[in-house]
């Protein structure tokens, strides 16, 4: 005699099978491509804008909407989307809104599952890098290319801004990321990630002020607030200013412009649209002076050693803590990590955040 648990399992299986077999044929004819089109139309507002986003003819998008409307009318007695007149966004009915939400969740879930499967079997590995750390990947890639190509492993490279490093890694948008963060000078990194330290460097000022206005001597912490400064709106260098002068550092410093990208600030100085200083890394400052970045006519000035706390930029490779241990040694994620570990000028550091 079967146990109660076995009987319940058989009932559940029978119920699930019945539900699957009872799906209306019209519903089964709806494709994921049609659902994606519906969601894109909902996001863009019109068939014309959706067609542009999808790289298709408007007539093709409209045909899919018409087919979905006919199917929905037969199934529930209501169309999904209604035209409101020339130039106006489409109106989505309650049934349409519900299906868009279902389509979006389904497509996102399938895509995330696909990425997880690719990561697990090692057919794809995604590496995130900032604009200024892509050279680190370039240093190790030649030694891995042949093996990756032989095994048909796809290396996906994604540009990541410093401010988004942890969010991208935590959300599993990237598997490894190369980037930088602010750390106290001489202290080990404290991060809740596996970490390979590549190098450390200080920050410096780039300026187009004359030597009479600003001599070539290190800038003390008390002197910086008196200088006209192009200040970052967010990111790594903003962390330095915030830790030195507090969260309201813009009220303390003489900020003459907010900049959200390095090149924008460099061009403001080199074109002499503004006269002042810009905080940057020593490597970037050197690249500007050597002509590898915009920097004609600029000077590099060091900062004094009286800033509290004493900070430096730490650059390296990050992975989610413990994830690599779940994969075989020849998994692409571990092969990349090993290549970086062998190439890094400093030894591997496994960093953890207390608590």
TrEMBL record:
Coiled coil: none
GO cellular component: protein-DNA complex
Protein name: LysR family transcriptional regulator
PANTHER family listed in its UniProt record: HCA OPERON TRANSCRIPTIONAL ACTIVATOR HCAR, TRANSCRIPTIONAL DUAL REGULATOR HCAR-RELATED
SUPFAM superfamilies for the chain: Winged helix' DNA-binding domain
Entry keyword annotation includes ATP-binding: no
Membrane-spanning intervals of the chain: none
The HTH lysR-type domain, residue ranges: 32-97
Keywords: DNA-binding, Transcription, Transcription regulation
Entry similarity comment: Belongs to the LysR transcriptional regulatory family.
GO molecular function, one term: DNA-binding transcription factor activity
């Amino acid at each position: 005699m079967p146990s109660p648990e076995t009987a319940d399992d058989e009932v559940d299986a029978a119920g699930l099978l019945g539900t699957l077999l009872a799906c209306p044929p019209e519903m089964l004819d709806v494709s994921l491509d049609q659902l994606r089109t519906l969601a894109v139309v909902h996001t863009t507002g019109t068939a014309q804008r959706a067609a542009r986003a999808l790289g298709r003819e408007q007539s093709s998008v409209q045909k899919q909407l018409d087919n979905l409307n006919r199917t929905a009318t037969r199934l529930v007695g209501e169309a999904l989307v209604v035209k409101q007149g020339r130039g106006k966004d489409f109106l989505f009915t309650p049934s349409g809104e519900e299906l868009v939400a279902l389509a979006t969740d389904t497509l996102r879930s399938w895509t995330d599952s696909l990425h997880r499967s690719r990561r697990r079997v090692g057919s794809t590995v995604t590496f995130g890098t900032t604009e200024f750390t892509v050279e680190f990947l370039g240093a190790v890639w030649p030694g891995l290319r042949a093996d990756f190509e032989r095994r048909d492993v796809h290396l996906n490279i994604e540009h990541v801004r410093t401010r988004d490093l942890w969010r991208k890694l935590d959300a599993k948008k990237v598997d490894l990321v190369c980037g930088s963060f602010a750390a106290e000078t001489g202290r080990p990194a404290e991060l809740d990630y596996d970490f390979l330290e590549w190098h450390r460097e200080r920050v410096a000022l780039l300026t187009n002020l004359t030597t009479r206005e600003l001599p070539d001597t290190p800038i003390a912490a008390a002197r910086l607030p008196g200088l006209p400064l192009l200040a970052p709106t967010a990111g790594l260098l903003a962390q330095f200013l915030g830790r030195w002068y507090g969260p309201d550092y813009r009220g303390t410093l003489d900020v003459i412009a907010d900049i959200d990208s390095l090149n924008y600030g460099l061009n403001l100085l080199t074109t002499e649209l503004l006269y002042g200083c810009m905080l940057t890394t020593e490597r970037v400052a050197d690249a500007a002076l050597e002509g590898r970045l915009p920097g004609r006519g600029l000077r590099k000035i060091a900062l004094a050693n009286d800033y509290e706390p004493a900070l430096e930029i730490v650059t390296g490779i990050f992975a989610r803590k413990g994830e690599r241990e779940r994969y075989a040694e020849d998994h692409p994620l571990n092969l990349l990590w090993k290549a970086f570990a062998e190439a890094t000028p400093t030894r591997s550091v496994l960093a953890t955040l207390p608590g």
